[in-house]
Amino acid sequence: MHFFSYAGGRLHCEDVPLDDIAREVGTPVYVYSEAAMRRQVRIFAEAFQSIPHLICYAVKANSNLSVIRRLADWGAGFEIVSGGELFRVVRAGGSADKVVFDGPGKTVAEIRYALDANILFFNVESAAEAELIADTARETGKRARISIRTNPDVDPGTHPYISTGMREHKFGIAMEEAHALYLKLCERPEIEIVGVTCHIGSQITQMAPYRDAIASLREFVTRLRNEGVSLRYLDFGGGLGIAYNGEEPPSVSGYAELVITATKDLGLTLVLEPGRIIVGNAGTLVTRVTFIKDQGTKRFIIVDAGMNDLMRPSLYGSHHQIWSVSENAATQVADIVGPICESSDFIARNRELPAFQPGDLAAVMSAGAYGFSLSSNYNSRPRVAEVLVSGKKYEVIRRRESYEDLIRLEL
Question: Does 186 participate in catalysis according to the annotation?
Answer without folding.
Answer: no
